[in-house]
Amino acid sequence: MSTLEVTFVTSDRTVWTGQAAQVVVPAADGSMGILPRMQPTLAVLGEGAVRITGEDGTVSERTVHGGFVSVDSDIVTIGVDDAELVESAR
After folding, report:
1. pTM of the full predicted structure?
2. Where does this protein chiefly localize (predicted)?
């Protein structure tokens, strides 16, 4: 099974890095799901939650207010100014 190599950073720290089964980001024009083998993509993020589902099924969710996401060859890079932890993440 393929996985995604995810790096999620703010301007001053790494928020999350590792292998993931899927990522959901708040693209400027709507929610965007990212799965392994996705076409290369570069998108501007709007306001909403970035949700990363790890290989073991754990979910990390953070609220963002803009930024970008880049996807290329199962490597996902998310860059934002700030990311606030969502307490109800599963």
Report:
1. 0.93
2. membrane
